[in-house]
Amino acid sequence: MPQKENTANTTTDYSPDILGGNFEKQTLKLNDDYEGAAIATLVRSKCDRPSDKAVLYIHGFNDYFFQEELAKEFNNQDYHFYALDLRKYGRSYLQHQKLNNVRSLKEYDEEINLALKIIKQEGNNHVLLNGHSTGGLIITYYASRNPNSTLFHGLICNSPFYEYNLSFFERKFGIPLLSSIGKRFPKSLVPAGFSEMYGYSLHQDNYGEWNYSLIWKPNHIAKVNLGFIRAIHQAQINIQSNCIINMPILVLHSDKSIYVKKWTDKLRSADAVLNVEHIAEFANAIKGNVKVAEIKDGMHDLVLSKREVREQVYKTMFDWIKSQFKNEN
């Protein structure tokens, strides 16, 4: 069924955000879905100098926007920073909903379209999409289906979820089977298959340096719906099968993955969620102006890596932006 266009939210009605400081937010009312009412949340941090440049950030699975340093780095480069908490995540989660419960990544088109229209209305004529993990998959999938959009002009993908981190047999037979079942039984639950060690490596209550909500981003992830498994799988098929992106795209990933069940300091210098070889393989298969950059000792969310590593991430991103968009810098 075609998604009904939402034209109700094209205002700029902001209020203070939980991050404080320069951060403010507005709620985007979305069309009701199979769980009832739905919202998304647009967070904003404007740079100090006049600018018509902006970036829209989209978080990953089991996540929400809290990466203040990322916003400040873009602000320092004269980019207004925006971030979406997608429906059923973080600031946008409603009590009657199941976290992350979508049946197609196309459902997110509604809030992405609304956010981009608001960003345009606020005077931004050069806009980049920046997505982490599932967010990287979402923006790549979105760009492949919106080749003629004038609302965004490039993509930056931070460890995008282009493939399940499973064995060959599980990827080629198990996931397609679950995806097929998920079409008929989207509410059926399966384990998320996500190590809580990754959360331990990030949060300051454990071994990390970051403070964020363990309610919105828990270390242990509950089961996910088969409908969600199918949503991811269908988008991945699109990326892996003759995907064309007609604007510059930068894909960043760590130089190595790690697979452990007990704590080790090595978790702070590798991707504990995805297989970086998969990321590189499918990023390089995208047709278009694609640059793939490997970040030594990067974590899964590269901008949450050790300071010296994330400084390299920022340098790589902004050097690429300057090289691709000379007239905008």
TrEMBL record:
Official protein name in the record: Alpha/beta hydrolase
Source organism per UniProt: Flavobacterium frigidarium
GO MF: hydrolase activity
InterPro entries: AB_hydrolase_fold (IPR029058), Hydrolase_4 (IPR022742), MAG_DAG_Lipase (IPR051044)
Ranges where the Serine aminopeptidase S33 domain occurs: 51-302
Keywords: Hydrolase
Domain of life: Bacteria
Lineage: Bacteria, Pseudomonadati, Bacteroidota, Flavobacteriia, Flavobacteriales
UniProt entry tagged with the keyword Acetylation: no
SUPFAM superfamilies cross-referenced by the UniProt entry: alpha/beta-Hydrolases
A Pfam family of this chain: Hydrolase_4
